[in-house]
Amino acid sequence: MNVKEIVSSKLTMLNEENIIKYDVPLKDYCSFKIGGPAEVFCVPKTQAQLIELMAFCLRENISYFILGKGSNLLISDQGLTGMVISTSALNKITKDENYISAFSGVLLKDLCEFAQEHGLSGLEFAHGIPGSVGGAVYMNAGAYGGEIKDVLYCSKCLSPQLSLLESTNPIIHLKAADHCFAYRSSALQVQGLIHLSSVFKLKQQNPAEILAKMDDFKLQRWDKQPMDLPSAGSVFKRPEGYFTGKLIDDCGLRGYRIGDAAVSNKHCGFIVNLGNATAKDVLQLIRYVQQTVYSRFQVKLETEIRVLGVESK
Ligand SMILES: Cc1cc2nc3c(=O)[nH]c(=O)nc-3n(C[C@H](O)[C@H](O)[C@H](O)COP(=O)(O)OP(=O)(O)OC[C@H]3O[C@@H](n4cnc5c(N)ncnc54)[C@H](O)[C@@H]3O)c2cc1C
């Protein structure tokens, strides 16, 4: 039996609840608008269903990928085999005094607006980052001098171990320090943990002042970044002591194009999809930029975006 047959024959309850779909085009689920189909695509409605799906994959030896809002991904034109599990329906937010708790699928935008409406400050930096809470904690997302690590109080996660997932208490509790946050990195990446929810510790402030700060960051973002074209944000991590966009610009690569993938004219650290870019185009462009910057400045550019699936040469 292939993966689709195994899933459709063994996960009958979840199939009946319409949580599972097959051959779903992933370009519709990521900000780059690039990517072939997911062999199996699941949208669990509860954390219990997420646990059930993960345990199933481990038991059946099926590979799985946890998809947030898809804003930091380059997905292969061939798509992904195995199961893609989207957190989009896990989107509960609650507040207790100065603490806000959010499930993994909550959009950062919604989290920030909820905090602002309740007069809680600290998350303004994240308002324009087009990801989910799970993706932001996983990546330690940051902007304008703020990072997730500055406001995160604790999280609940899952470990990809069948014995734990099948136990009566599969949830792992992480205090702030347990996340081992560093620049665009966290313990979740290193240990392969799946994020369920986080609590953020914020400070009381006048909602109008919070809104003004969010609006200011939004203006800066629209002024400097190609927000009108599909992309996955900054392609490369910032090498210490340099600005990535300037390095690329100084190599004369502003606007440089392979197929429909181009170095953004507005911000050279972004690669944009001008219409029908393929993952292959983007990968070739990434390699070209890396080689050119290295041969000119001897600086290695490491990708920040996650490249998924195997690409044909
Ligand atoms: C226009 C634009 C601007 C951007 N600006 C910024 C910026 O200013 N700062 C910044 O840091 N980033 C920025 N980004 C990148 C991106 O938005 C962030 O990295 C974001 O945190 C990714 O969240 P996501 O939900 O989209 O994750 P996805 O892209 O869906 O996934 C990213 C990684 O996180 C993992 N993941 C997602 N959810 C979970 C979970 N629940 N448990 C475990 N792993 C999970 C995925 O498996 C994947 O490996 C930008 C992107 C765009 C398109």
Question: In terms of topology, how is this protein built?
Answer:
Elements: H1 3-10, H2 12-16, E1 20-25, E2 37-42, H3 47-60, E3 64-67, E4 73-75, E5 80-86, E6 93-96, E7 99-103, H4 108-117, E8 120-121, H5 133-139, E9 142-143, E10 146-147, E11 152-158, H6 162-165, E12 171-175, H7 187-191, E13 194-201, E14 203-204, H8 207-224, E15 231-234, H9 244-250, E16 257-258, E17 261-263, E18 270-273, H10 279-297, E19 306-308
Parallel strand pairs: 2-5, 3-5, 4-19
Antiparallel strand pairs: 1-2, 6-7, 7-13, 8-14, 9-10, 11-12, 11-13, 15-18, 16-17, 17-18
Flavin-adenine dinucleotide binds at residues 31, 65-73, 87, 104, 129-132, 134-136, 138-139, 141-143, 188, 194-195, 225, 227, 231-233, 306.
Note down, in words, how this protein is organized.
There is one protein chain. The chain is an alpha+beta fold. The protein has three domains: 3-86, Uridine Diphospho-n-acetylenolpyruvylglucosamine Reductase, domain 2; 93-222, Uridine Diphospho-n-acetylenolpyruvylglucosamine Reductase, domain 3, CATH 3.30.465; 227-308, Uridine Diphospho-n-acetylenolpyruvylglucosamine Reductase, domain 1, CATH 3.90.78.10. It has ten helices and 19 strands. Strands 6-7-13-11-12 form a five-stranded antiparallel sheet, covered by helices on one side. β16 (257-258) and β17 form a beta hairpin. The mean pLDDT is 96. The site of flavin-adenine dinucleotide has 33 residues, from β3, α5, β9, β13 and β15.
